[in-house]
Protein 1
Amino acid sequence: MNKRRKIGATVATLALGLGGVVLASTPASAVPTCAVVNHGTYGGGDPWVDVNNRCTSTIRVKVIFNWGQDSACTSIPYGTTHRFNGDTIFASYEDVVNC
Protein backbone atom coordinates (compact mmCIF):
# COMPACT_ATOMS: atom_id res chain seq x y z
CA MET A 1 0.00 0.00 0.00
CA ASN A 2 1.45 3.36 -0.94
CA LYS A 3 1.96 6.18 1.52
CA ARG A 4 -1.04 8.23 0.31
CA ARG A 5 -3.44 5.27 0.75
CA LYS A 6 -2.09 4.54 4.23
CA ILE A 7 -2.69 8.14 5.28
CA GLY A 8 -6.19 8.09 3.77
CA ALA A 9 -7.06 4.85 5.56
CA THR A 10 -5.74 6.24 8.85
CA VAL A 11 -7.76 9.45 8.49
CA ALA A 12 -10.90 7.49 7.62
CA THR A 13 -10.42 5.21 10.63
CA LEU A 14 -9.93 8.18 12.95
CA ALA A 15 -12.98 9.94 11.55
CA LEU A 16 -15.16 6.88 12.10
CA GLY A 17 -13.75 6.38 15.58
CA LEU A 18 -14.26 9.98 16.58
CA GLY A 19 -17.75 10.00 15.13
CA GLY A 20 -18.68 7.12 17.42
CA VAL A 21 -17.28 8.98 20.41
CA VAL A 22 -19.29 12.08 19.58
CA LEU A 23 -22.50 10.06 19.33
CA ALA A 24 -21.77 8.21 22.54
CA SER A 25 -20.95 11.37 24.48
CA THR A 26 -24.51 12.75 24.49
CA PRO A 27 -26.18 10.73 27.30
CA ALA A 28 -29.52 11.60 28.82
CA SER A 29 -29.41 14.01 31.72
CA ALA A 30 -29.22 12.37 35.14
CA VAL A 31 -31.75 13.25 37.82
CA PRO A 32 -30.62 15.71 40.51
CA THR A 33 -29.01 14.29 43.64
CA CYS A 34 -31.96 15.50 45.73
CA ALA A 35 -34.10 12.79 44.08
CA VAL A 36 -33.73 9.42 45.83
CA VAL A 37 -34.09 6.30 43.69
CA ASN A 38 -34.79 2.81 45.04
CA HIS A 39 -35.46 -0.24 42.89
CA GLY A 40 -36.17 -3.93 43.18
CA THR A 41 -38.40 -6.71 41.89
CA TYR A 42 -41.73 -8.14 42.97
CA GLY A 43 -41.98 -11.84 43.84
CA GLY A 44 -42.80 -12.74 40.23
CA GLY A 45 -39.75 -10.90 38.90
CA ASP A 46 -41.40 -7.72 37.60
CA PRO A 47 -39.19 -4.70 38.35
CA TRP A 48 -40.27 -1.62 40.28
CA VAL A 49 -38.54 1.77 40.74
CA ASP A 50 -39.45 4.37 43.38
CA VAL A 51 -38.38 7.98 42.83
CA ASN A 52 -38.70 10.17 45.92
CA ASN A 53 -38.54 13.90 45.17
CA ARG A 54 -36.68 15.66 47.99
CA CYS A 55 -35.89 18.61 45.72
CA THR A 56 -37.48 22.02 46.35
CA SER A 57 -39.66 21.88 43.24
CA THR A 58 -41.41 19.45 40.90
CA ILE A 59 -39.13 17.23 38.82
CA ARG A 60 -39.87 15.45 35.52
CA VAL A 61 -38.29 12.04 35.11
CA LYS A 62 -38.60 8.80 33.22
CA VAL A 63 -37.23 5.35 34.02
CA ILE A 64 -35.09 3.50 31.50
CA PHE A 65 -35.49 -0.28 31.54
CA ASN A 66 -33.31 -2.89 29.86
CA TRP A 67 -35.36 -5.47 27.95
CA GLY A 68 -38.59 -3.55 28.52
CA GLN A 69 -40.46 -0.41 27.57
CA ASP A 70 -39.22 2.82 29.19
CA SER A 71 -41.71 4.70 31.33
CA ALA A 72 -43.50 7.84 30.23
CA CYS A 73 -42.13 11.21 31.31
CA THR A 74 -43.73 11.82 34.71
CA SER A 75 -43.95 14.92 36.94
CA ILE A 76 -43.23 14.23 40.61
CA PRO A 77 -44.14 17.07 43.00
CA TYR A 78 -41.87 18.04 45.88
CA GLY A 79 -42.10 15.71 48.86
CA THR A 80 -43.78 12.80 47.04
CA THR A 81 -42.73 9.39 45.77
CA HIS A 82 -43.80 7.84 42.48
CA ARG A 83 -43.56 4.11 41.75
CA PHE A 84 -42.76 3.00 38.21
CA ASN A 85 -43.35 -0.62 37.17
CA GLY A 86 -41.60 -2.57 34.44
CA ASP A 87 -43.82 -4.10 31.78
CA THR A 88 -42.32 -7.61 31.78
CA ILE A 89 -40.38 -9.99 34.02
CA PHE A 90 -37.51 -9.72 31.53
CA ALA A 91 -37.17 -5.98 32.15
CA SER A 92 -34.50 -4.69 34.51
CA TYR A 93 -33.79 -1.24 35.90
CA GLU A 94 -31.13 0.77 34.07
CA ASP A 95 -31.46 4.45 34.98
CA VAL A 96 -33.70 7.40 35.86
CA VAL A 97 -33.25 10.48 33.67
CA ASN A 98 -34.66 14.00 33.38
CA CYS A 99 -37.17 14.58 30.63
Protein 2
Amino acid sequence: MRQLFFLFIFTSTLLLAGCGSKQYEVTTKGGDIYTAKGALNYDVQSETYSFENEQGLGVRLNQEDIEVIQEKK
Protein backbone atom coordinates (compact mmCIF):
# COMPACT_ATOMS: atom_id res chain seq x y z
CA MET A 1 0.00 0.00 0.00
CA ARG A 2 2.82 2.38 0.85
CA GLN A 3 4.55 1.71 -2.49
CA LEU A 4 1.32 2.46 -4.31
CA PHE A 5 1.05 5.79 -2.49
CA PHE A 6 4.60 6.80 -3.47
CA LEU A 7 3.97 5.73 -7.06
CA PHE A 8 0.87 7.94 -7.13
CA ILE A 9 2.81 10.93 -5.74
CA PHE A 10 5.65 10.43 -8.25
CA THR A 11 3.25 10.16 -11.21
CA SER A 12 1.30 13.24 -10.09
CA THR A 13 4.51 15.25 -9.80
CA LEU A 14 5.56 14.33 -13.34
CA LEU A 15 2.18 15.29 -14.75
CA LEU A 16 2.16 18.65 -12.99
CA ALA A 17 5.71 19.42 -14.13
CA GLY A 18 4.71 18.77 -17.74
CA CYS A 19 1.75 21.13 -17.49
CA GLY A 20 3.90 23.94 -16.11
CA SER A 21 5.99 24.62 -19.19
CA LYS A 22 4.37 26.95 -21.69
CA GLN A 23 4.93 26.95 -25.42
CA TYR A 24 4.83 29.95 -27.69
CA GLU A 25 4.30 30.17 -31.43
CA VAL A 26 6.50 32.73 -33.16
CA THR A 27 5.49 33.79 -36.67
CA THR A 28 7.91 35.82 -38.77
CA LYS A 29 7.00 38.37 -41.42
CA GLY A 30 8.40 35.90 -43.98
CA GLY A 31 5.81 33.31 -42.92
CA ASP A 32 8.09 30.97 -40.95
CA ILE A 33 6.55 29.52 -37.79
CA TYR A 34 8.62 28.47 -34.77
CA THR A 35 7.50 26.83 -31.54
CA ALA A 36 9.38 28.00 -28.45
CA LYS A 37 9.68 25.81 -25.38
CA GLY A 38 9.31 28.17 -22.44
CA ALA A 39 9.55 31.93 -22.40
CA LEU A 40 11.44 33.93 -25.01
CA ASN A 41 14.38 36.08 -23.94
CA TYR A 42 14.67 39.58 -25.34
CA ASP A 43 18.09 41.24 -25.70
CA VAL A 44 17.67 45.02 -25.70
CA GLN A 45 21.13 45.77 -27.13
CA SER A 46 20.86 43.52 -30.18
CA GLU A 47 17.04 43.82 -30.41
CA THR A 48 16.69 40.03 -30.78
CA TYR A 49 14.55 37.31 -29.26
CA SER A 50 16.20 34.02 -28.38
CA PHE A 51 14.52 30.77 -27.39
CA GLU A 52 14.79 27.00 -27.51
CA ASN A 53 12.69 25.25 -30.16
CA GLU A 54 10.90 21.89 -29.85
CA GLN A 55 14.04 20.01 -30.92
CA GLY A 56 16.07 21.71 -28.19
CA LEU A 57 18.03 23.93 -30.58
CA GLY A 58 18.70 27.59 -29.89
CA VAL A 59 16.98 30.11 -32.17
CA ARG A 60 17.64 33.86 -32.41
CA LEU A 61 15.40 36.20 -34.40
CA ASN A 62 15.56 39.94 -34.97
CA GLN A 63 12.66 41.84 -33.45
CA GLU A 64 11.92 43.52 -36.79
CA ASP A 65 11.45 40.11 -38.46
CA ILE A 66 8.74 38.93 -36.04
CA GLU A 67 5.09 39.37 -36.97
CA VAL A 68 3.47 37.87 -33.84
CA ILE A 69 4.25 35.89 -30.68
CA GLN A 70 1.38 34.02 -29.09
CA GLU A 71 1.02 31.40 -26.38
CA LYS A 72 -0.01 27.98 -27.67
CA LYS A 73 -3.08 26.49 -26.03
Protein 3
Amino acid sequence: MARCVLVACLVLCCGTCSQPLTLNPSSSVILEGWAASGKGALMKKVVKYMDPRGFQVHSMGPANPEERSYPFLWRFWQKMPPKGNINILYHSWYTRVLQQS
Protein backbone atom coordinates (compact mmCIF):
# COMPACT_ATOMS: atom_id res chain seq x y z
CA MET A 1 0.00 0.00 0.00
CA ALA A 2 2.73 2.47 0.96
CA ARG A 3 4.62 1.73 -2.26
CA CYS A 4 1.52 2.50 -4.36
CA VAL A 5 1.06 5.83 -2.57
CA LEU A 6 4.73 6.68 -3.12
CA VAL A 7 4.47 5.91 -6.84
CA ALA A 8 1.35 8.06 -7.13
CA CYS A 9 3.06 10.98 -5.37
CA LEU A 10 6.18 10.73 -7.52
CA VAL A 11 4.14 10.56 -10.71
CA LEU A 12 2.11 13.60 -9.70
CA CYS A 13 5.18 15.61 -8.69
CA CYS A 14 7.44 14.54 -11.55
CA GLY A 15 4.78 14.31 -14.20
CA THR A 16 3.84 17.98 -13.94
CA CYS A 17 7.38 19.15 -14.69
CA SER A 18 8.57 16.34 -16.96
CA GLN A 19 8.57 18.45 -20.10
CA PRO A 20 11.78 20.44 -20.52
CA LEU A 21 10.83 24.07 -19.98
CA THR A 22 13.27 26.88 -19.35
CA LEU A 23 11.26 28.27 -16.43
CA ASN A 24 11.12 25.03 -14.42
CA PRO A 25 13.77 24.42 -11.79
CA SER A 26 15.87 21.29 -12.05
CA SER A 27 15.16 18.47 -9.62
CA SER A 28 16.68 15.16 -8.61
CA VAL A 29 14.91 11.99 -7.52
CA ILE A 30 17.16 9.61 -5.60
CA LEU A 31 16.22 5.93 -5.34
CA GLU A 32 18.11 4.31 -2.51
CA GLY A 33 17.58 1.10 -0.58
CA TRP A 34 18.86 -2.35 0.18
CA ALA A 35 19.29 -4.95 -2.54
CA ALA A 36 15.98 -6.36 -3.84
CA SER A 37 13.96 -3.62 -2.13
CA GLY A 38 12.04 -2.71 -5.30
CA LYS A 39 13.99 0.33 -6.51
CA GLY A 40 14.01 -0.86 -10.13
CA ALA A 41 10.29 -1.62 -10.18
CA LEU A 42 9.51 1.75 -8.61
CA MET A 43 11.68 3.54 -11.17
CA LYS A 44 9.94 1.76 -14.07
CA LYS A 45 6.52 2.75 -12.73
CA VAL A 46 7.48 6.40 -12.29
CA VAL A 47 9.28 6.73 -15.64
CA LYS A 48 6.39 5.10 -17.46
CA TYR A 49 4.27 8.27 -17.11
CA MET A 50 6.99 10.83 -17.79
CA ASP A 51 8.03 12.58 -20.98
CA PRO A 52 11.41 11.05 -21.97
CA ARG A 53 12.73 14.41 -23.17
CA GLY A 54 12.66 15.85 -19.64
CA PHE A 55 14.59 13.37 -17.54
CA GLN A 56 17.68 11.19 -17.38
CA VAL A 57 18.35 8.08 -15.31
CA HIS A 58 21.85 7.54 -13.93
CA SER A 59 22.95 4.32 -12.29
CA MET A 60 25.73 5.05 -9.84
CA GLY A 61 28.02 2.08 -9.34
CA PRO A 62 31.44 1.97 -7.71
CA ALA A 63 33.80 4.80 -8.62
CA ASN A 64 36.34 4.13 -11.37
CA PRO A 65 40.02 5.18 -11.00
CA GLU A 66 39.45 8.57 -12.67
CA GLU A 67 36.51 9.37 -10.39
CA ARG A 68 38.53 8.39 -7.33
CA SER A 69 41.08 11.09 -8.15
CA TYR A 70 38.43 13.78 -7.53
CA PRO A 71 36.54 14.68 -4.33
CA PHE A 72 33.98 12.05 -3.31
CA LEU A 73 30.87 13.96 -4.42
CA TRP A 74 32.36 15.08 -7.78
CA ARG A 75 30.79 12.26 -9.77
CA PHE A 76 27.36 13.12 -8.37
CA TRP A 77 27.81 16.81 -9.16
CA GLN A 78 28.51 15.84 -12.76
CA LYS A 79 25.09 14.18 -12.99
CA MET A 80 23.05 17.17 -11.79
CA PRO A 81 20.35 18.03 -14.35
CA PRO A 82 20.23 21.20 -16.43
CA LYS A 83 17.52 23.74 -15.72
CA GLY A 84 14.05 22.40 -16.45
CA ASN A 85 15.03 18.71 -16.37
CA ILE A 86 14.74 15.88 -13.87
CA ASN A 87 17.55 13.60 -12.83
CA ILE A 88 16.84 10.13 -11.41
CA LEU A 89 19.77 8.64 -9.52
CA TYR A 90 19.64 4.89 -9.08
CA HIS A 91 21.82 4.78 -5.95
CA SER A 92 23.59 7.78 -4.51
CA TRP A 93 26.20 8.81 -2.00
CA TYR A 94 24.02 7.20 0.69
CA THR A 95 25.07 3.75 -0.58
CA ARG A 96 28.51 4.25 0.93
CA VAL A 97 26.96 5.13 4.29
CA LEU A 98 24.66 2.09 4.21
CA GLN A 99 27.48 -0.27 3.29
CA GLN A 100 29.77 1.02 6.03
CA SER A 101 27.18 0.78 8.83
